[in-house]
Please model this.
Amino acid sequence: MDAGFPSHTKTKRTWIPTAPPPMTITANLSRWLPHTVIVVVILVASSIYLWPSPLEFPMDDTYIHFVYAENLSERGGLFFNNPGEKGVGSSSLLWVLILGAGNGAGLSMHWLAKLVGISSLAALGIGLYYLLRPLLPIWAALTVVLLVISSGHMLWFALSGMETILFLALGILALLCYREERWGWLGISLGLLAITRLEGIILALVIGGFDIWRVRGIRAGLLLSATVCGLICCPWILYLWQRTGYFLPTSGIGRHFSNIAAIQIATERIESLAWLSRFPSLAYPLTWIGYSIEFILGGFALPAPYLNINPGVGSFNYKLSIWAILGLATVVLPLLWISLRRLVNVFKTPGWEKDQRVLPLIIFLF
Model:
């Protein structure tokens, strides 16, 4: 028995650590290092991208948002030319509200749009990391995220002055909230997603429908999410309907009819496309396939050697980089095949619909 201690405390021991527990440094690194790497990569890549022309934007849509935001903050109305106009040319209420609040506070909307885009890309990267982390090791998840955020398309969207990356970041946040069953935050994220772009309602419907099928009923948490989401987005939808007679911004409706008219004119004037007039439902997806080939597979962006393609569509001639074909054959298609096989294996696993790790990724596919 130790001196100075009564006999009834004989079995009680006190341990005063003199060194940190093993793996503490590694555990701490795993917490903050991935986030730091993601943010640093985005900042470096964005700085390089912005260096030649930091305040310019590639699309007129950005400046349309600026006009709506300026009128909202300075004249108190959501309009482009005059307060009495019927149409709504902005497709993103949340983006206009953010820019308008910044303009009202005396901030430059040009810099604010860049800053919010970069911040949204960082949030997207970190959210995607947390989405993948239960299924992949730390460095594998981080590698996937870095490939995504350093993509030229993602950087372009983040710095274009548009709401695209904010929309994606809110979508990832909604998936994380659903996985963790944070129902209130799920409703908030889905509501903000819908007023960023109305297409966000699709994700809300998919999550709701999937959860009802999964538990064979409607949970109270899901009702809470639906209520919160509705309180955020329904006023915007009702405003559009009251002002324009449609549940969509007139800019989106106009773009849709413009695409239809362009396809109709093309099939009438170009003989090689006349067959499309018999299958109008194919015209739109084929247009997107052509767009993807031109902008995703490289086109003029990647260096020579080139493959000149003339499909016989009027004067259309496409120059495709051989490097893009090699990338498609050696990276994109193998990854798609591996992913498809893993997805099939998931569906073959009994009880996969109860696995909280895979649920957000399955919903994301839809």
